Amino acid sequence: MQFEQFGLNQELLKAIQALKYENVLPVQEKVIPQLLNRKDVLVQSKTGSGKTASYAIPEIEKIDWLINSPQVLVLTPTRELAKQVQNDFRTLGSYKRINAVALLGKQPIKSQINELKQKVHVVSGTIGRVLDHIERGTLDLSEIKTCIIDEADECLNLGFKEDLDKILNYLPDCTRAMFSATMPQSILELAKSYLKDPVIIKIKENQPYNENITPYYIRVEKENKLNVLFDLIHYHLPKRAIIFCNFRETVENVFDAFLDGGYSCCMIHGGLTQDERLENMRDFKKGMFRFLIASDVAARGIDIANISHIYNYDCPTTAEGFIHRIGRSGRVDNEGEAYTLVLPTQMKYLDLIQDEMDCRFIEVEDIVPKEMDPILSTSEPIVLKEEVLESQKNKLYLKAGKNKKLRAGDIVGAFTQIEGVEPTDIGIIEILDYQSYVEILNNKGDLVLKGMKGHKIKNKDILVEKAK
Ligand code: AMP
What we know:
Structural class: alpha/beta
Bound molecules: adenosine monophosphate
């Protein structure tokens, strides 16, 4: 199936094309028409299945650009996921000039309040911080048309039920969608109370785990876990791998051992600052490191392409935990392998995971490590698809804002007087008290700068230059 068949607008199709999404993925085929029709949905889909685009695409299609207040609210359990959702809305919404704001906990609230004063179409945020903004009166919900709860099972696991109840009570009547990797009873009950006659969508029934991944396990003793891990990676020589640990301290210990061995690695766990987590994640995504050592914080909905190997240094204790970890590899069409180190006392967890997933892990007994250059990073730096779109954007600074009663229409009017500049080349416009910022798309920043030399906006001489 092709995206054109949904009857989407040209701006959205252009972004989809730029991202090289050639085929509609199964979750998208089922979810997009329902959300376009404003039906409530409950969706079970594995991480990496393309679920974010399955809601971002119909929501961007429906957004009324002229409305200034947020129209879509996405609630997530983690800051990383909220940030990623914001990025996906921004890239898919590039040509429609969709402004998405991320409201992340543990980040300065003041700058978020300022961002919310601009024209904002989409808000993605962690539950606690979104509630905080609602209760402070800084997040206007009056125009919300759709609310999406992503990774609903994790929202419950992290104890956000009460806050979710409060947020949903504040919302006006709107379409609601819940996405969850797993569908335990607690999620079905939540859906009953939050959703109105929902369409239930299950992608690959009975197989919520990523079947592109072959699961292996290896019996280990506590004292030789690190040796076994190094043997495994020297046997596989993975280009990019994630090593999962159950505890923050273990992440740090394994990270230290990798550093001592001279391996190209970074780590992420809940004890790092938000900035450190985002930076490490971004660097790893871009191929600057070969190994990411992570606690389960990183296992949620985070999209990292081309991971061929996952190592569970610690055995997860639930099938859900395992599914989320292996969601990292084998994304979309890639194949991958997951190796789980299991202590004798943890065999019960392995049995439980296998039973719940209805599959058998393959036991690995003998491995012959090969030589590997430890500091070797990935072969080439990875250019993220969204970066291609981003690289064609230039931000301009205007030395006038609300003080000169400047409005977005004045700027679009003036810029489109320039030959070769179309309204679709103008991205997000931010008008502040004494200055404004305008995103110019399609590499036309210099054209606008040149064209505006000696020209007025709203009959006023206004300095326009590249934003620093
Ligand atoms: P998600 O399940 O939202 O984490 O998405 C997983 C990955 O699939 C992301 O890298 C998306 O950019 C990518 N993706 C989403 N839709 C498509 C599509 N139709 N074709 C190819 N890749 C896609």
